[in-house]
């Protein structure tokens, strides 16, 4: 059983996960228009991951006998100065997500809700990967410092990323 406060907090996070997905879709559009298909692919995978995160939370709320309440959202930012700025904004956003997931975990711990803690642990671990990956790409983009050949190599590398849904047991 989930408390009303935990249900409301997870509902808010579902909303934020949807918003996160739209941020990444907007970033994908930026890269598509800039003829960087690999970076666009990377952002599309991020979009899919965020939608999956929202769906996992949606299912958890339903499985615990509670109701999901979907909300509207603001339009995401769409203009950037460079690929580096896009990934820096993505990292900043993931850091916000991490704080929100940690706050959910804190609430679950405070309420001694073990099922919610076990469920949220997957997201805690996921955020470590999200931030590390963004940091890695930012380091590469800084290393090439706008060099077109380096940018194209990074773009080709990011084109290799594929979406792998999380295991059903998670």
What does this structure look like?
The chain is mainly α and 170 residues long. The chain has one domain: Ferritin, CATH 1.20.1260. Helices cover 75% and strands 0% of the residues. The protein is built from 5 helices and no strands. Helix 1 runs antiparallel to helix 2, helix 1 runs antiparallel to helix 3 and helix 3 packs antiparallel against helix 4. The longest helix is centred in the C-terminal third of the chain and has 31 residues. The chain is elongated. The mean pLDDT is 95.
Question: Counting H and I runs of at least 4 residues, what is the number of helices?
Answer: 5
Q: Approximately how much beta-strand content do the residues carry?
A: under 5%
**Derived structural class:** mainly alpha
Average pLDDT, rounded to a whole number, is 95
Approximate shape: elongated
> Which topology does CATH recognise?
Ferritin
| Radius of gyration based on Cα positions | 17 Å
Largest sheet features: none
Helix content: over 70%
Q: What's the name of the CATH homologous superfamily?
A: Ferritin, core subunit, four-helix bundle
CATH class: Mainly Alpha
Low-pLDDT runs of 5+ residues are: none
**Helix-strand sequence:** HHHHH
Number of domains: 1
> Which CATH architecture?
Up-down Bundle
Number of strands: 0
Distance between the termini: 19 Å
């Amino acid at each position: 059983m989930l408390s009303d406060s935990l249900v409301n907090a997870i509902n808010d996070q579902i909303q934020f996960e949807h918003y996160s997905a739209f941020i990444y879709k907007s970033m994908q559009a930026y890269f598509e228009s800039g003829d960087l298909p690999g970076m666009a692919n990377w952002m599309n995978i991020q979009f899919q991951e965020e939608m999956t995160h929202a769906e996992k939370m949606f299912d958890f709320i339903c499985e615990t006998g509670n109701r999901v309440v979907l909300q509207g959202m603001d339009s995401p930012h769409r203009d950037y100065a460079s690929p580096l700025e896009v990934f820096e904004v993505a990292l900043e956003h993931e850091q916000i997500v991490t704080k929100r997931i940690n706050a959910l975990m804190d609430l679950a711990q405070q309420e001694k809700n073990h099922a919610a803690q076990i469920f949220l642990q997957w997201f805690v671990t996921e955020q470590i990967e999200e931030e590390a990956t963004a940091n890695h790409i930012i380091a590469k983009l800084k290393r090439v410092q706008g060099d077109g050949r380096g940018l194209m190599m990074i773009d080709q590398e990011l084109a290799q990323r594929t979406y792998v849904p999380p295991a059903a047991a998670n």
